[in-house]
Amino acid sequence: METIDLKIKVNGINYCLTVPSHKTLLQVLREECGLMGTKEGCGEGECGACTVLIDGKTVTSCLMLAGQANGKEIMTIEGLAKNGELHPLQKAFIDKGAVQCGFCSPGMLLSAKALLDENAKPSELEVKEALSGNTCRCTGYKKIVEAVLSAAENMA
Amino acid sequence: MKSFKYIRAQNVEDACELLDSYGHRAVPVAGGTDLLVKMKRHLLKPEVVIDLTGVNELKYITAASGCIKIGALTPLGEIAASFFLSEKVEILARSAGLVGSKQIRNLATIGGNLCNAAPSADTAAPLLVLEATAHIIGSQGQREVALEDFFTGPGRTCLTRGEILAAVSFTEPPAQAKNVYLKYTRRKAMDIASVGVALSLVPGENVRARIAFASVAPVPIRIAEVEQAIQSKFAELNQEEMNKDAARQIAILASAMVRPISDVRATAEYRKRLVKVLVARALEECITGMVRSRIV
Predict the structure, then answer these.
(1) Each residue's pLDDT expressed in tens, for chain B with a length of 296 residues
(2) For B160, left (φ over 0), alpha (ψ -120 to 50), or beta?
(3) Which of A57, B28, B185, B217 is deepest in the core (most CB within 10 A)?
């Protein structure tokens, strides 16, 4: 079996790994780094449950080969809270009831973070567009959008 | 996915050499947003995957002497967000921004969108009306191909062994050109075009029209007869504005000329209907823009 050597930084921590070359970044994060917050939904880049931030940009990690992540700085959902303190987005998701089963939540939160990092005062339409790559089967999206708008207000 | 050997190409020459030496046993990967889906479904089982994402020399958006050139490895997200392209070639920035989702666009490249050669590729029809050129580099050297000749069938291009698409280029449209790309999808986002229509009108003594379609043929196509019909109509009505009837007539012609298939997204009949509606809308949008700028 072919393997590759990987050096990645995840949530500020450096990892040196040797992994089978056909693994995706999603698999590496879950199986090698033990970070289970990033989920596999469809495995085809359609649902966004596998969303992580690479150099601040959202990507569907199920479509990235491990080798393509070499040398990159990655943030997963585990990196959102700092020193045990929840990010305003996470607090807003809880306060607004934007979490039901929670499966889409890591991806939603990171897509929302990427949005607010770029646009601190998004309109409702802009929030919906930013989250359009993340599917939720439970909530109907309304409270998720409200949570993002609420967090934006609190962060301003 | 089946196991494979992963090799990261260091530069263009390296990439071409690797692809040439491994031939059919290897595939190149850029953003991977189409390729990995195929590999996960076992439609492709390469022994070797050659990663092009480190070939930074093919990531650029440049303009020189009225010619805009975009490196094949430029991510669609960058093209969509490019202030320069949004100003000068809004049709391309817009169409790049319609592909997939934000996450996909941060990975996917314009080269990948074209080399995947889906009939529905969103950057294809706009580039066709811009009369773009495909710049190809291989182990045997470089060549240029009109984009119209780049696509040879659904999912197939004219690239031969050891070749990669390095860039696309086109003449910067004149400021008074009206370009529009309309993509009909069943959902508001995250969908493939059921039908796409790209239209370019350049006003002048004789109006110049270019029209291209996605998802109505085995490849993205221009239709010369529709372009000529538009140009004739403008010549005929050149003392007054083109009206809705004229647009409708051209739309009906376009609809009659296409022979789409029925598939999971739409039936052939619905696609023909969509062509009629979208061509009329595209014409009206361009003409309204021309009238507003007082250039008709």
Answers:
(1) 899 999 999 999 999 999 999 999 999 999 999 999 999 999 999 999 999 999 999 999 999 999 999 999 999 999 999 999 999 999 999 999 999 999 999 999 999 999 999 999 999 999 999 999 999 999 999 999 999 999 999 999 999 999 999 999 999 999 999 999 999 999 999 999 999 999 999 988 889 999 999 999 999 999 999 999 999 998 887 545 677 888 999 999 999 999 999 999 999 999 999 999 999 999 999 988 877 666 54
(2) beta
(3) B28
Q: How far is A2 from chain B (nearest CA, A)?
A: 6
Contacts B101 to A, Cβ<8 Å = 45, 48, 60, 132-134
| b/e code A102-133 from CB counts within 10 Å (16+ = b) | ebbbbbbbbbbbbbbeeeeebeeebbbbbbbb
Closest alpha carbon within chain B to A48: B103
Please report residues of A whose CB lies closer than 8 A to that of B48. none
Interface predicted TM-score (ipTM) over 0.95: yes
**In terms of DSSP bridges, do strands B5-8 and B48-51 run parallel, antiparallel, or are they unpaired?**
parallel
Q: Do B190 and A46 touch (CB under 8 A)?
A: yes
Contacts of B40 in chain A (CB under 8 A): 43-44
Say if the Cβ atoms of A45 and B100 lie within 8 Å: yes
**Chain B residues whose beta carbon lies within 8 Å of the beta carbon of residue A114:** 102
To probe the interface with B, which of A65, A119, A124, A131 has the most B CB atoms within 10 Å? A65
**Taking CB atoms and an 8 Å limit, are B32 and A67 in contact across chains?**
no
Q: Comparing C-alpha atoms, which of B150, B145, B164, B167 is closest to residue B68?
A: B167
Q: Is A133's CB within 8 Å of B3's CB?
A: no
Residues 6+ apart with CB under 8 A from A58: A51, A52, A110, A111, A114, A133, B102, B103, B106
- List the alpha helices (DSSP H) in A5-130: 25-27, 88-95, 105-118, 124-130
What is the residue whose two structure tokens read 């590999």?
A: B39
Q: Which helix (H) or strand (E) holds B16?
A: helix B12-22
Question: What is the C-alpha to C-alpha distance for residues A29 and A65, in angstroms, rounded to an integer?
Answer: 12
Q: Which chain A residues contact residue B77 at CB under 8 A?
A: 57
> Could you tell me which of B126, B139, B140, B112 has the C-alpha nearest to residue B34?
B112
Q: Which residues pair with B153 in a beta bridge?
A: B156
**DSSP codes joined into one string, B93-114:** HHHHTTSS-HHHHHH-BHHHHH
